[in-house]
Design a protein that fits this description.
The complex is a heterodimer of chains A (166) and B (169).
Chain A: H1 3-11, H2 17-28, H3 37-50, H4 59-99, E1 107-109, E2 112-114, H5 117-165
Antiparallel strand pairs in A: 1-2
Helix pairs in contact in A: 1-2
Chain B: H1 7-29, H2 32-48, H3 59-77, H4 96-114, H5 118-129, H6 134-141, H7 145-168
The chains are: A mainly alpha (166), B mainly alpha (169).
Amino acid sequence: MKIEHLIEKYLSAEITPDEERELETQLALLQEDEEFYEYKQLFRYFDDKKCEKCEELPAERWIGKLETTRKKNRKWLVLAGGIAASLLLVLSIVLNVEHRPKLEGYVVINGTRINDPVLAAKYVAECDAELQEMMRYSDSIIEKMEMMIEDTDNELSDWETANEEE
Amino acid sequence: MSEKTSKEYFVAQVIQYQDSLYRMAKALVKDEDFAKDILQDLYVKLWVKREHLVGVIHFHAYMMRALRNLCLDNLKKNRWIMEDVDDHLESGTENPHALLERKDFNMMISKLIEQLPELQRTVLHLKDVEGLDVKEIAYISDLTENAVRVNLCRARQRLREMIQGSKNK
């Protein structure tokens, strides 16, 4: 195939790998003053580029970075964990201090919490008086009931005597 | 830890493509040191998610795609401008005059390629330097195969025009 035709195919991106090899072979034979020499130079430029190596980036340089990255990640985890734990500790201490029950004596009377001992004694005295009153009242009831039982017993014995006489 | 997520396996996988990755990064960011920094970032990023890479079949294409994205991100952040100098040419059998001429031409081509739009530059590099096929380039550049051919065609045509233009000057 003619070189012009191959170049045309190359430029329109329709060239096959075999044709491209043929083009390279034909270009390699060209002399400086011949037509299409710039394509020879262009292909040589691409060849030079293909040989370019990354020599100044030895594996040791970035492998070390990989190790540091892993360690860095761990460091971050430890640091974050430490901070979280410290915050939790401080928070729990603060909350504990705020909500700790005061160590003073108190009584609960009828659902009311009373810290004042004088007031508590007054409430206790009132309650005691009420209780005494209630006990007195219940004693009088018991007494009345006993009298009623005694009366009933007497009436019952009278009725039995009368029946026996008949 | 499985064999495929071990450091040795990861390093072996990466090292075999290092030169190709470096060329690609350099072609995109146009600076050797910047390209190396990006490459290191890429390795670290891939290392961090190495467990997800076990299922990747075309590791080279996958890395090239990740590298391209990383380069573009970095370029957005820092607008780098560089002077591209080809010092990697070996003298071989060429005479000093021919070697100098070749270096000059390479420098000129490098500068002309830099003027191409990013997508055309990427496609041209992947095809003509890395020798990848259209399917792989489509995956790396996130394009359809047809779009790859169109961009490649435009890049080559534009490059030809620019070479002719600079020769006429």
